[in-house]
Design brief:
By secondary structure, this protein is mainly α. 73% of the residues lie in helices and 0% in strands. The longest helix has 32 residues. The chain is globular, with a radius of gyration of 19 Å.
């Protein structure tokens, strides 16, 4: 192979690996937001999945138990978010932000108690099949979500409660239950993205290892106009920019810190130029009160 071919193959592989957590989190956010619930808590759900899976894997030696426990942690946080936003009708942005802040503090505290280190969990043996599994799930989840949203009764009801919940309720759809299901699915997918980071890509948990990926996933969701395949392409684009900045480190006469911020600057530029053109679900962020018009 020529050097150019090797570079392209290397960038392609890096893009897939770096995009996987973004794709999973973005599609998770898509389910919640298509139902009308803003999921600002994607970052916290990813952290919950990452830390819990790494901690359980370190304690038991089983990455599969780590996977299940990480999913359970994401589900628990999703249930908390759903309870606050749907049952209590709290501000969805504030609730999501509070969960993110909570998950910045809990992992170091628990890690210090379990492993006498607040910075990271112990290094893990490299999982053999787990990294490939989330990558496959991430790539398959976008067309699967497209099918669910536009070809199934569940998807029709989900879109209805995100657009006109009053009309959906009149047709006999439980708005609250549909939104609960959507937020729980969101938590599972976001947690899987965090699990991939911790026990698939890095083989340990480090403090705040998501590094804003939950917010980038939200940006990709907006950039993709809340459509699964467009969100997938947006995540691949952000992953490519991340792969480029890694490739540039050490090979360019630019301070590393400036190179590392390339994906984040790119995110801001994309949002600044596109956010006004995006069309969110009409009921996004609006709590539903039965009987109110």
């Amino acid at each position: 192979m020529s050097d150019a071919t090797l570079l392209i193959v290397s960038l392609f592989g890096s893009t897939l690996r770096l995009s996987t957590p973004l794709i999973l989190a973005a599609l998770g956010g898509l389910y919640a937001e298509r139902s009308g619930v803003i999921n600002m808590a994607l970052e916290g759900m990813m952290l919950a999945g990452a830390f819990t899976s790494a901690a359980v894997t370190a304690l038991t030696g089983s990455p599969w138990l780590g996977l299940l426990s990480g999913l359970a942690a994401g589900l628990l946080l999703a249930a908390l978010h759903a309870f606050c936003c749907i049952a209590c009708r709290a501000d969805q942005v504030v609730t999501g932000t509070a969960i993110n802040i909570l998950m910045l503090g809990i992992p170091p505290l628990v890690s210090g108690a379990l492993f006498e280190s607040t910075g990271s969990t112990p290094a893990l043996a490299k999982a053999q099949t787990l990294p490939t599994l989330p990558i496959v799930v991430a790539l398959a989840a976008a067309p699967a979500t497209m099918f669910v949203l536009f070809k199934t009764p569940f998807g029709l009801r989900l879109r209805a409660v995100g657009e006109t919940p009053e009309a959906a309720a009149t047709a006999g759809v439980s708005v609250a239950w549909m939104r609960w299901q959507a937020v729980l699915i969101s938590g599972l997918l976001a947690a899987l993205g965090g699990i991939y980071l911790a026990i698939g890509q890095n083989s340990l948990y480090t403090r705040n290892m998501t590094a804003g990926r939950g917010y980038i996933a939200l940006a990709a969701l907006i950039f993709g106009n809340w459509m699964p395949l467009r969100a997938l392409l947006a995540c691949l684009l952000f992953g490519f920019m991340d792969a480029v900045q890694i490739r540039l480190q050490g090979s360019a006469s630019i301070p590393t810190q400036f190179i590392q911020i390339i994906p984040y600057i790119f995110t801001m530029i994309v949002l600044a130029g596109f956010i006004g053109k995006a069309t969110p679900p009409r009921a996004l962020g609006a709590p539903y009160v039965k009987g109110r018009r």
